[in-house]
Amino acid sequence: MRDKKPLGLQLFECVRGSPISFRSCQALVLVLTFLSYASYHATRKTTSIVKSVLDPKTNLGLLHWPSHLYLQNLKGTENNMTLSSGWAPFNAKDGTALLGEIDLAFLGVYAIGMFFAGHLGDRVDLRILLTIGMIGTGLFTAAFGAGYWFDIHNFYYFLGMQMMAGLFQSSGWPSVVAVVGNWFGKSKRGLIMGIWNAHTSVGNISGSLIAAAMLKYGWCWSFAVPGIMIALVGLTVFLLLPVGPDVIGIQEDLHLKDSEKADMDTPLLERRSEGKDKAVGFIEAWRIPGVAPFALCLFFCKLVAYTFLYWLPFYISHTAIGGQYLSDSSAGVLSTLFDVGGVVGGILAGHISDHLDARALTAASFTFCTIPALFFYRIYGSISLAWNIALMFVTGMLVNGPYALITTAVSADLGTHSSLNGNSRALATVTAIIDGTGSIGAAVGPLLTGYISSRSWSAVFTMLMASALVAGLLLTRLVVAEVAAKMEARRTPDHAHAAASDLPVSSMGEP
């Protein structure tokens, strides 16, 4: 494996004159994977910021709920909004629907590619796979913006660029989760991965701020700058990222206590001699108890989360807040508060699930609480800027909490299921199945929003609330099993830890 050691680390060790330590490698892995996926999300966020520039005159339509509760009179709208001529073909009557189809193209290819990327990730060098994905993403993200420079108005050009960007992006999540899984053990998994998963929100925030700042120079730069950034991070990954301790030649850190080594050196998928080098098949991974319900739950969780990711800045710029309409760039900056709430929600969900030792109960509780949060944000979010900020933060916290928990700690739990027989090459496949299924929902939500929002934003929020309800209901059986196990554990204290720790996965194997 020495020949796979990153060139940058070889140079660093040569200059330093000694090998890099185990803890230094762990820190390096956390930083690089964090930056990698943050840069992926920064490139995804640009489309939502530019939407209202490409299609500035979208008809909001009539609303189903009493308009005096949340929207001022639409008279004088054009006096309050800074409108431009837009960009053909998105400034036509069906511009909103076309933007929804662009989102579908990206997320549809992303979802399909995720299944193949996870299968591939367990069989090839993850560093190379991640590097190719990041550079390809940067290239086609910038190519979308190049349509401005070359005065391109063909819808299929933009559609093709988004599809290619989605294909390259699909390699990101299975790769970073598998790499982190190779370096970190099980201790406080929910909290650690909840903090690490903040890269999603950090990427959304930075992407929003960069794209909004670049709008004054032309919407092309909102795509070009994030595209260049992710390509540069990709080159850094190629030079520095160690995909596992064996690649570096590190077996253990002699300075760690024995108890720490036993946990930290155990990857998210426990390694055993049997079946160690055989990668888990796609169908076999689907059959792991618990994968299907959590994957379907994530379908609806990501439907809600990605609708906000792609449409929240557009919604804000087209909704009167305190009687005034915000500019496109201001709406983009304001929308970052949703992601700030998402950071808090991911960490909170991870910590609570660790404390309760109940992943399904935590995820279901967050999704059910999302329903009233969405309702109140729709009705009262336009009263004033302060109300909008507060309700947006709470909504982001509740929406992203279960999303972050399922894609990280839950995926890792499922990857360690006893049916794998200690197989060490399944984490990327299991992660890809769960997140790939969720990404199909991420494609459906923005697409439906593109059509529904032209008639009624209230109908969009109704769709989101129904999705949150279904997501929670899908975990009902797991929640019941977790609660029953907790009650049983109180009656038999000696088996408390064993019963709880098996839960959200093993309970689905019951007839």
In short:
With 511 residues, the protein is an all-alpha fold.
What does this structure look like?
The longest helix is centred in the N-terminal third of the chain and has 33 residues, at 22-54. The protein is mainly α and 511 residues long. α14 runs antiparallel to α20 (457-474), α17 runs antiparallel to α18 and α19 (427-452) packs antiparallel against α20. The protein has helices at 7-16, 22-54, 77-80, 95-121, 126-149, 155-169, 172-183, 189-196, 199-214, 219-240, 245-248, 258-264, 282-286, 291-317, 328-334, 336-356, 359-380, 385-415, 427-452, 457-474, 476-491, 496-501, 503-506. It contains 23 helices and no strands. It comes from Urochloa decumbens. InterPro entries: MFS, MFS_dom, MFS_trans_sf, Sugar_P_transporter. This is Major facilitator superfamily (MFS) profile domain-containing protein.
